[in-house]
């Protein structure tokens, strides 16, 4: 059965069937207006609209599969629109069985359940036996003590057991229809509609703190711009979640019902298909049923993205609802938003945790089944499949990616402040602390990891993919619709991503219970770090403007010098032995300007790099002697373990200079790894060299990791796949399955940098590391090995809080691996050549 092909050919539309009597009937009404009659006989359901409804100027079809007509709609053998629609008003699974038990009914007898509980149902409908009326409206107080007693009776008795009014609400969770006024909870009586729905914590041991979960995620959704009802939490002392009903219109004098249907009712599906028929194609079919198709596309895409980023695999079709009136169908506010991934993390499943390796989406999104495999381009393509343009889908996705991690942290901190009022209570304090731990896992593990999977890897693709798909949202001050991402925008986003990358594997860390407390402490520290990074990113434009003004001054001074007869630019015009390029991309409206500052003499490798980097601040203001003396002092503390006589390539020196000058590292420590020379050079966040040393790299020549190699045991990795991937990586310390806490360089490829391991005798890793021949240093399975002393003294202290790693390629060109650096180097070469030609003149 396909949700995108709704065919009503099998629906029999006659007044009656010969010889068939309908002994069971229910009157269907909205508020005080009769809508029709529901009847059932021999498991065939029939619905007939009333003449009063058909002549009402505001009348509408209850659902697309139940069109307005003056003849009865009767279910057929295979298509059962009447039964499916009304059955979807009832609760599901354990909740249905519990309510059936309370009413002494068979849970499979949906008609009998509707008769018993139809006085207050999901949506607008009231279902009563013929001739029966409800008593006048009224309110019954529901004290906390009584509510607490009902909650304690779960799951053996229904939450609505003992209520004066029998009520039915769709869904699988225990819930109760209530009225909330001025902070007090009441039960509706008679014809009084409810205004809110109340849910306690799940009774399942596998889903703890469901109240805090749903309350937090719904609040986060509101912050992210999704349309959601007002929600709150309270303790009686058991926690309860309260949500305002979107199918109600609340005025000072009365509460009126609004007609609402879920996606299964919209698409003429039985509720049992709520997961099986979930797909992008089904969402596209939903769009076609709504009156505002563009708005529906945008909201469904936002809902889809938000569920992915928060780890919600309960996003089924019955968790989408629609408001219906005579003007058409409109997507309702979102509800039932929560993170199921938390329950599959190491914090709650221990060593057998499914997150992140095998946690599945609610349904495949364009063939992607697992949260871990979801990437930026997949979500953009999903938006296109919904009918959005690529630019619109990218804009919506980027908006959530840029804000969700920060908003989650902010909401978590606000929640912690709110919790202070309850922590002193002995009957609530322990519950609140447990909820806080849950929300910490959600904020710092689930959301951060999904942010990294979807966003950070897209930034990596932007760095290596030229100008392909570098779209950013429409911007009035930039003009145009959909333009390429600028360098500043990429770096601003990366600044936040770098700060949170150290949490990439905290879900796995949580499997070790004795470490969980220290992890939580570390996460609090990371919160501070992320906030600082975000503030730094916000000041990027101001810094860029200042740099541009300085470049204007330098350019003017250079032009003045060029006009002096016989005057040559400082530093000589011959090709220097050591040089680097300083380039700054300031504004999109002007070209990249590049200035080359050559060194005056050949020096040792360590001093050469320090000299080149020091030039970023002194070359335009000091003479050559000062430019040589300053870096010499800085280099004295740099550890140089390179073999005697081994030089550092000009490419490495130029790349280091470009990283510092362009602030590509965003102030974080960085390392340059030259596979061809078997060298690792470590720099602080200030751009100063901290050390250089030989290193061992992957035994196979190549610049890309084989698909799936990260999941293989070392011994199972084929020889030709033992590569060290090239490129720019954001890494940091995190746990591993078999080596404890390691410094991840490329987490997705399981490539780390660690001290020289013992290895096998025939590998002779110690001897290879001491060799002056770089070819001897290709022996690992892909990881980078350095000496234990260099690792402990330089690497560990430098990258304790994460950093950026630049791995030079074996085969790929520099242009392919570092396109922006290559572009600036080419520009620097042009400047040098123009200077040579000018000097010859």
TrEMBL record:
Location of the region described as Disordered in the Swiss-Prot/TrEMBL record: 754-776
Which one of the record's GO molecular function terms can you name? protein serine/threonine kinase activity
Which positions fall inside the HipA-like C-terminal domain? 167-402
Cellular component, GO, one term: cytosol
UniProt keyword Coiled coil, yes or no = yes
InterPro entries in the record, alphabetically?
HipA-like_C, HipA_N1, HipA_Ser/Thr_kinase
| Keyword Transmembrane helix attached | no
Where does the record place a coiled coil? Answer: 530-564
Ranges for domain HipA N-terminal subdomain come to 26-127
Instruction: State the UniProt keywords alphabetically.
Output: Coiled coil, Kinase, Transferase
| The protein, known as | Type II toxin-antitoxin system HipA family toxin
Q: What is the organism field in this record?
A: Knufia peltigerae
